[in-house]
Specification:
CATH architecture of the largest domain: Orthogonal Bundle
Number of strands: 6
Strand order of the largest sheet: 1-6-2-3-4-5
Largest sheet: 6 strands, antiparallel
Distance between the termini: 102 Å
Number of domains: 2
Helix content: 55-70%
Structural class: alpha+beta
Shape: elongated
Order of helices and strands: HHHHHHHHEEEEEE
Strand content: 5-15%
CATH class of the largest domain: Mainly Alpha
Number of helices: 8
């Protein structure tokens, strides 16, 4: 076979092999699809206990964010007062500086007009009446001291005005930073409540009812154990201020919880307690965490009406002790101010706003209105945000 024919035969064989179908075993395999991530079970498939745990976690996060918002708002209010105080002081200092400069100007003109080349010592030697010259020297010394004081006041006024201007600028910068932090805290609360709303929207009426019933039974059991532990022992009368705080809180029963507010139409938890004691005549911190940190702590077995019961390890919830194992509280979004068992939430401890107060000899607890104990101790419908986001 000639080389040319051989080349033609080989080319035909190669072409035939290229056109032949590839056996199944040799066909390339497509890449394997990644395994789907496990999806959380739908709310309808989850247990009531799990749903309640999630709701409690979300509400607790929202309350933590609310107390952070309240703390920032309180700091901002104080900072605004400080800025206003410094502005007033700076205005007065500038007026004083203007007066000092005017006095210094008059002094300079008087000194220029009364200038002479003869020294006071030479004038004394040449004077016909040395005693008169000495008297004049005394007057001149007095004038010199007054001039020195005028110059000193000018220097002091300038320094005071400069120092106050620096403090005012620093205070204003602090106010702007706090306003930005308050806006961030406001957005954080709103985001937490959005999480609550999304979970609630996914639940049926039957699930909500089951969760409420499950939680109610849990609170009853927690209260039974709390009382059985001996944490509360006997009843003690309040002080006069404590009585006024209790009666104020009882008058707010039925008003809605609204985060970031302190009355008179709505309250959050620490807004209620701070306003109750403010009405009684004792100013206490605005937030539950500051109330826990700064007020006098008392053992639970020494509780008396008007004391504040603080909840959760972070001190993010607070209620006012009513007596007989019950508290008045603003529970959380969706609920109204009501009377609840003291163990409705995990108790951290108690504080007393008036530790030096004398207990009343005779005490009649306030009469509770009808429905004071009705409704959930924890709400299940998120309330809207306050109108103002920054102050």
């Amino acid at each position: 076979m000639s080389g040319k024919v051989l080349r033609l035969v080989c080319a035909a064989a190669v072409a035939q092999a290229a056109l032949a179908p590839v056996p199944a075993a040799a066909a390339p395999r497509p890449p394997a699809a990644p395994a789907a991530a496990p999806q959380p079970p739908e709310p309808a498939q989850r247990s009531v206990s799990d749903l309640l745990t999630d709701l409690q976690r979300l509400y607790r996060q929202a309350e933590q964010a609310t107390e952070a918002y309240n703390a920032t708002a309180e700091q901002l209010r104080k900072q605004q007062s400080e800025v206003a105080r410094l502005d007033t002081a700076l205005s007065r200092a500038r007026l004083a500086l203007h007066d000092s400069r005017g006095a210094a100007g008059r002094l300079a003109r008087q000194q220029y007009q009364g200038s002479t080349a003869i020294s006071p010592y030479v004038r004394l030697l040449l004077a016909r009446d040395p005693q008169h010259a000495l008297d004049q020297g005394h007057v001149i010394g007095q004038l010199a001291r007054e001039r020195a004081e005028t110059v000193g006041r000018l220097v002091g006024s300038e320094k005071r005005a400069n120092d106050l201007a620096g403090e005012a600028r620093k205070a204003l910068d602090g106010q702007l930073a706090l306003a930005a932090r308050q806006k961030k805290a406001h957005d954080d609360v709103r985001a937490r409540l959005d999480d609550v709303e999304r979970l609630l929207a996914s639940l049926s009426a039957e699930q909500l009812a089951a969760i409420a019933a499950f939680e109610k039974s849990g609170i009853a059991e927690a209260q039974r154990k709390f009382l059985a532990s001996g944490a509360l022992s006997g009843e003690r009368p309040p002080t006069e201020e404590g009585d006024r705080a209790v009666r104020y809180a009882v008058q707010q029963l039925g008003k809605p919880y609204q985060w970031g507010t302190a009355g008179p139409a709505s309250y959050d938890c620490s807004g209620l307690t701070s306003q109750a004691w403010g009405h009684a005549g004792t100013l206490i911190p605005r937030t539950s965490q500051e109330q826990w940190a700064r007020l006098t702590r008392v053992p639970l077995n020494e509780l008396r009406p008007g004391d504040l019961v603080v909840y959760f390890p972070e001190a993010t919830h607070v209620a006012l002790y009513l007596g007989d194992g019950m508290v008045v509280q603003a529970p959380r979004p969706g609920a109204k101010i009501k009377v609840s068992p003291v163990a409705a939430n995990p108790v951290l401890g108690a504080v007393r706003p008036d530790p030096r107060g004398e207990p009343l000899r005779l005490y009649a607890p306030p009469k509770l209105p009808k429905g004071a104990l009705d409704g959930p101790d924890e709400g299940y419908y998120a309330a809207p945000a306050p109108e103002t986001s920054a102050r």
